[in-house]
Amino acid sequence: MTNSKILKIKVLNPFQLEQIDQAWNDEYPLKLTKRFGILLDGTDNHLYYLMEDLDNKVVAWGVMFEKEAEKRFSIIVFNKFKGFGYGRRIIDEFKKDHSTFYGWVIDHDNDVKSNGEKYISPMPFYLKLGFKVLRDQRIDTEIISAVKISYGV
Q1: What is the pTM of this model?
Q2: What pLDDT shows up at residue 3?
Q3: How many domains does the chain have?
């Protein structure tokens, strides 16, 4: 059970940061573990969107930030809370607050998570919510293969 509202804050406390870092390591591909700390390097104007349970434990998290003159986002829904609409609610809140924004999405199911499970691309989720795929803008490295998506462009 979670609180129904989305908390918007500019700075994460250590308890929140620890939980989000753990979720990052659990939910993203193994190649991306221990890399949460560099997500926001070189970025400005962070606004965090949190959904917490009744014990103030984070169950879903998003961040909107500025990089290279663009509004960008990242989002994580903790595994046991997927399928309950929390990701959609955070994206809907992004849409209320920002008319245009971008993100990077792993667009394949070839990676494995730290627990050995296959990482499933969230691309269908974003397409269902009205995002457009910018196929000519990709990241392809040893660590990540992803495509840029946009909303409102």
Answers
A1: 0.92
A2: 62
A3: 1
